[in-house]
Amino acid sequence: MSDSIPTTGSGAPSEPLDPKRWLALGVIAVAQLMIILDASIVNIALPSAQQDLNITDADRQWVVTAYTLAFGGLLLLGGRIADYTGRKRTFIIGLIGFAGASALGGVASTAGLLYAARGLQGAFAALLAPAALSLISVTFTLPKERATAFGVFGAISGGGAAIGLIVGGVLTEYASWRWCLGVNVPIALVTALAAVRVVKESKAHGNTKYDIPGAVLVSLGLVSLVYGFTQAAKLKDPGKSTEVQGWTDPSTITFLAIAVVLLIAFVVWERRTSTPLLPLWVALDRNRGGSYLVFFFVGAGLFAMFLFMTFYFQITMGYTPLESGFAFLPFSLGVIGAAGFVSNLLPRIGPMPIMIPGLALAIVGMLMLTQITADTSYWGYVLPSLLLMSIGMAGVFITASSTSLVGIGTHDAGVASALLNTSQQVGGSLGTALLNTLYAGAVTAYLADHLSESPKAAPGNALVHGYHVAFFWGAMLLTVSLLVAVFVMNAKKEDVPADVVAPG
User: One short Pfam family name for this protein (predicted)?
Assistant: First the structure.
């Protein structure tokens, strides 16, 4: 591609193109791959980590939610830091910090240390992800080149999960679950060194104030909410009773009440501050707000699906970690394959005729999983359900990415895209905590109600019953997304922005 100097509409020359821009894209793509890979790779490693560190069923979701909560809760602040401090500098700091957090998780000797490391990973990913996206925007100024760069970025975002499932299976089976975290260290450090040489610095000017109170309020509120769900799933007297604390336990009520107060305070603060972390006007439009709600509930249902299917494959079906990775592979490939078709169809018929059937397909696929047993055929039943969900989700991811930018100018496109990513991560955190709580309650209730079953059969049947409950409520979360799409959103094909970037 030509490195000639582009001109503005008046014929005056603008800033010369960066001659290292395609090398910079390669560096940014590796960083994005690492972020995406890390989410799926840990799911495969979780059963082994749980056994090694004696993590309870009620607490195991913190390995996932500690990362997604920190990532989603700090993502908007991370974007502001990247803009104001310098996108290249923030990118490099994020890489180095991510490497350190990964190393800490890889050597964790206790569950608490592993949770802390995952939270640190999420915090540094919240610096890294928006910096990477911003660097592409400022590095590629020609529309055709920018479309190519975003296409590469989107392909990495879609394919990274599939790579993570396979790599996680290989590392867990032939090395240790710890290497699923440790593998990030050399990748991040080499990428940081490369970024020093080939990535060009840029930063925003003008008002550079940070909304620290907003970031603190929303982060503490979300952590308290997830912790309240976790408390509801804990046993009242572990080892002596199968009764869980439940939703009416004082500790559960206390943390949920604190969460409500903090999140309301966050909204009030955002309405009053001159530099809000979350500009409320962006989310109040019916199509943009609907997109965020769709991604929130889709994230809540899908993140939990991956968690429980991992345990179903490895504990109930007896798959090895590597076999589990390959068992998930059709889901990722289905999303990637259908995405190309959806992208071509979107400008012709608009978002809603794609999003609504896509959500319906995903709901059917999730409900099919409520019928699985220890003897269910993978090829005859599990695979079709995964493919239905993957094809449906391709329709949702592409269209919601477009409708989240309806009526948004280029100045505010960054915050609108970040909100979509934040919705997915926060939804995933809360959904995982909620469904894990419902799962734990269903398992303990089943064991209490089926004392007459043989000691060998009862635990296995209880786990399957727990999966059924989790998948049913996962389908209900997707149903809420469908209702939002039908009754809230009304975007037409002419409303869709010309250049849309799917979130990572």
Answer: MFS_1
pLDDT at 12: 40
User: Do 424 and 376 share a structural domain?
Assistant: yes
Cα separations (Å) of 164 from 46, 141, 265, 328?
13, 31, 38, 10
Q: Read off the tokens for 221.
A: 């509120």
CA–CA separation, 212 and 281 (whole Å): 20
- H/E stretch holding 193: helix 184-198
How far apart are the C-alpha atoms of 355 and 393, rounded to whole Å?
Answer: 9
What's the full length of the chain, in residues? 504
2 within domain boundaries: no
For the chain, what is the domain count?
3
- Same domain flag for 285 and 232: no
Asked if residue 466 and residue 336 are part of one domain, the reply reads yes
The pLDDT, as a whole number, for residue 233 is 65
First to last CA, the chain: 26
- Counting Cβ atoms within 10 Å, is residue 27 exposed (0-12), middle (13-18) or buried (19+)? buried
Q: Indicate the pTM of the whole model.
A: 0.79
User: Rounded distance, CA 226 to CA 25, Å?
Assistant: 36
The last residue of a domain, from among 173, 202, 231: 202
- Residue pair 311/47 in contact by the 8 Å Cβ criterion: yes
Number of Cα atoms under 13 Å in the Cβ half of residue 318: 4
**Locate tokens 């169809």: which residue?**
345
Distance CA 332, CA 347 (A): 24
DSSP letter string over 205-221? -S-----HHHHHHHHHH
b/e per residue 207-242 (b: at least 16 CB within 10 A): eeeebeebbbbbbbbbbbbbbbbbbbbbbeeeeeeb
Q: Which residues span the domain enclosing 250?
A: 211-274
Task: Indicate the residue among 179, 202, 225 that finishes a domain.
Answer: 202
Mapping DSSP to helix (H, G, I), strand (E, B) and coil, where does residue 234 land? coil
Structure tokens at 323: 């076999």
Q: Please identify every stretch of the chain with a pLDDT value under 70, giving residue numbers as ranges.
A: 1-15, 143, 146-147, 150-151, 154-155, 157-159, 204-208, 233-245, 409-415, 417, 496-504
Contacts of 453 (CB under 8 A, 6+ apart): 461
